[in-house]
Write a structure and sequence with these properties.
six-stranded mixed sheet, Rossmann fold, 521 residues, 23% strand
Length: 521
């Protein structure tokens, strides 16, 4: 089934009124992009209509980003017809695409860290003489109109991931783009911010802006789009009206098979018995760090998975970094952290690593791996970071043995062993980050957003590893903004709000409604 190159019958078509001409604003026919003799996309046809939200889905490595980068002028197609407004187009750079009204909002923002939010919004459109006060006022008005709470005078380097994403979106709107490509736009937004973003998408659609929407959250694609295109292994699988699709159909088209939504079988009674048998390994007592973490207290037991839910800014990630030694709690009245009953205060993460604590970062591209190194080197460096694994002379035999074990256990793409990590798909990158920490043989593992930006086929594999670690007797903490993930793999669920743990649920008693109510109220 392939109904590409047909106008949508949904809201976008209705928005143009009866009898309106339905010509695509953008069309690609038999597009190909070849790297080193290998097709990144092969014979892909894609079209986009004014006032349409067209979702683009597929596993990591399916070709979504390649197709969108070609549309945005970041790369050029090797072959195929590329038309804008019915005329042949070829962009040598993103600036050419922007001049044609095409803007891409990247998942990893393309902002200049040393410039303010206002300067980044204006970037590329600067006047000969610019007053910073005027620039800030204009940016403030734009951000407020989008319901984005960002100080325009703040340097981008001082903003969190979510607010950087807001500035990216504001810049696209400021440039009056006719076509906007959103790459994982909600990955770092809170539920409230996601609602505002969806309202913004609908407003842009009503204005006739055409939107390409890339997201691993299939529910979002089904909710916000008019049509959906599925890519697999660089090839077009199907383009269809969203009304004709379901999550199960999308998954089947994406990975070529059915995949069951597994749920963690350990319920409250079983988890309680395991805690009694294996004991408490970590206790956090009234830990405080500035205004971000306030008197936070909880305990972690061996052999269980503890989920920590909460909105962005609730202190979830900060408490994990305090435990790991990457952030420092208050020197006075900062609370106590006990490891097996012994008070600990780590000045650097290496001390925590030596005590058997691992923290797997939420931002793998910034803090998770060495992007110019291959899989084997990244895994081996993880071992070298431990007291037991450190050595003055490197051992290629040990390097290969460790990498072989973790590549096999985590099912890392073996054909990509010689590639730099930056060249791997998001799912394989995440597996390398996990392997780099697990090779240290930690007893306490903290996963921060373990499946963010990971394709639907890889998520169950990561969940299976998390469960296996708990079954081995290790204490596992999972911080996640995706409530179905927290519910599916946790024995206990803690809810953080405004720097405190405000609720605790056994897995058998927890629901999304209960967790969200605790997180907001």
């Amino acid at each position: 089934m392939n109904v590409a190159l047909t106008p949508p019958r949904g809201a976008a078509a209705a928005a143009k009124g009866p009898g309106a001409a339905r010509e695509p604003v953008l069309r690609i026919v038999n597009g190909n992009k070849i790297y080193g003799g290998v097709h990144a996309i092969e014979d892909v046809s894609f079209d986009l209509f004014p006032g349409e939200v067209h979702a683009l889905v597929g596993e990591n490595g399916a070709g979504k980003s390649t197709l969108c980068k070609a549309i945005a002028g970041a790369i050029q197609l090797t072959s195929g017809d590329f038309q804008v407004d019915g005329k042949p187009a070829r962009f040598e750079s993103p600036r050419d695409a922007l001049a044609a009204g095409i803007c891409m909002v990247y998942q990893e923002t393309s902002l200049v860290p040393t410039m303010t939010a206002a300067q980044n919004i204006e970037l590329g459109n600067e006047k000969l003489i610019t007053r910073f006060r005027t620039l800030n006022i204009q940016a403030q008005q734009l951000l407020q109109s989008l319901n984005f709470h960002v100080d325009p005078a703040t340097p981008i380097g001082m903003l969190g991931t979510a607010k950087r994403q807001m500035v990216e979106i504001a810049r696209a709107v400021y440039n009056n783009a006719r076509i906007i490509i959103f790459d994982e736009p909600t990955a770092s937004l809170t539920p409230e911010e996601i609602v505002h973003f969806f309202n913004l998408v609908r407003d842009l659609r009503a204005r006739g802006v055409a939107i390409i929407y890339i997201s691993h959250a299939l529910e979002e694609s089904l909710q916000v789009s008019d049509r959906i295109t599925v890519l697999r292994d660089g090839k077009l699988v199907i383009t269809a009206d969203t009304a004709d699709m379901t999550r199960e159909k999308l998954v089947r088209f994406m990975i070529g098979r059915d995949i069951s939504q597994t749920h963690y079988s350990h319920r409250a009674g079983h988890a309680e018995r395991r805690r009694e048998r294996r004991g408490k390994v970590l206790t956090v007592e009234n830990v405080t760090m500035g205004t971000t973490v306030k008197n936070m207290s909880f305990s972690i037991y061996a052999g269980e998975v503890v989920g920590i839910a909460g909105l962005i800014g609730s202190g979830r990630t900060e408490i994990a970094k305090i435990i790991f030694g990457a952030l420092k709690r208050n020197l006075i009245d900062g609370g106590t952290i006990r490891l097996h009953g012994r008070p600990v205060r780590y000045n650097v993460p290496k001390q925590a690593i030596n005590d058997g604590i691992a923290y797997i970062t939420e931002d793998r591209k910034l803090n998770g791996f060495f992007e110019t190194m291959v899989v084997d080197d990244n895994v081996y460096i993880g071992k070298l970071a431990t007291r037991a694994g450190w050595r003055f002379l490197l051992s290629m035999a040990t390097r290969g043995k460790l990498a072989n074990y973790w590549v096999d256990r985590l099912k890392i793409g073996t054909l990509q062993r010689k590639a730099k990590i930056v060249e791997l798909s998001g799912g394989n990158q995440q597996k390398v980050v996990i392997a780099k920490s697990l090779v240290q043989d930690p007893r306490i593992i903290i996963f921060d957003e373990p499946t963010r930006g990971v394709d639907v086929g890889t998520i169950p594999e990561i969940h299976a590893q998390i469960r296996a670690l708990a079954d081995e007797g290790k204490a596992v903490v999972v911080i996640s903004s995706y409530l179905p993930e927290v519910l599916s793999i946790s024995d206990r669920i803690l809810v953080a709000r405004m720097g405190r743990i405000v609720a605790e649920f056994d897995a058998a008693d927890a629901t999304e409604d209960k967790i969200m109510y605790a997180a907001i109220h």
